[in-house]
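Posted in: Structural Biology > Protein-Ligand Complexes

Title: Requesting predicted complex, zinc ion in pocket

I'd be grateful if someone could produce the 3D structure tokens for the following input. Sequence and ligand are given below.
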Amino acid sequence: MVSHKELRNGLEIIRSEHNGHSAGSRCVDCQDIITQPICSHCLHSQMKVMVGEFDPELASEIDPCEISGDTNCIQCGKEMGLCAHCYSKDVYLQIKSKNENIAAQFIARFDFDLRESMA
Ligand SMILES: [Zn+2]
Ligand SMILES: [Zn+2]
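-- Reply #1 --
Done. Output follows.
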């Protein structure tokens, strides 16, 4: 028979492990530890400028896709939960479906291990 106290301690351990910042915050999508904490909001504005040089209409279609999490962006300090790789992959695929040429420019500029995962 487990006492309530023991049960509660056990739950607290699970909870602290789950929320533990020491283990590093993981991306909600790929579950990898976020090593380049740049939020989708910051990336989005950079991507819009880059894509806008080629196709302003396509640039306006890029979705900021803000997901908050346990990591703070190194640029704006905003909470983020989606890593730069996953976000840029989403945007890359969106651009690629419209314009392969811009997609190639995009991958050269925002290469968050995209080339490896797309290979
Ligand atoms: Zn990810
Ligand atoms: Zn940011």
